[in-house]
Amino acid sequence: VSDGLLGDLGHILTRSQVGARLFERLLPLQLLVHAVTDDERARHALLGGGDDYELLFCAPVAMRARIGALADAVATQVHRIGTVLVDPGRFELEGADGERRPLAPSGFRHFPGEGDKH
Q: What is the pTM of this model?
């Protein structure tokens, strides 16, 4: 993740022609507690901030145990934060209250106005 979680995930979803639902309760907000004081600012920083240089990937449910074992083997934290949806263009956040809110694939744009021409 170099251009914000939402921006980079938006690229994956667009290329794969799928959607996604992120779960607020699964977002590792505690990783940002030292930087900000309230959950709203932490959520915004996590979803839209850039230069994190973390890996973001999608994997089948059947691989979950294997991914966990690999992460343990290399002492790396892996966080499941959502699920892929078969509905292209559907991008949403399920809040702690269960309410689903639409998300926009925002993030740092190197060349504003040029759109996504990759």
A: 0.72
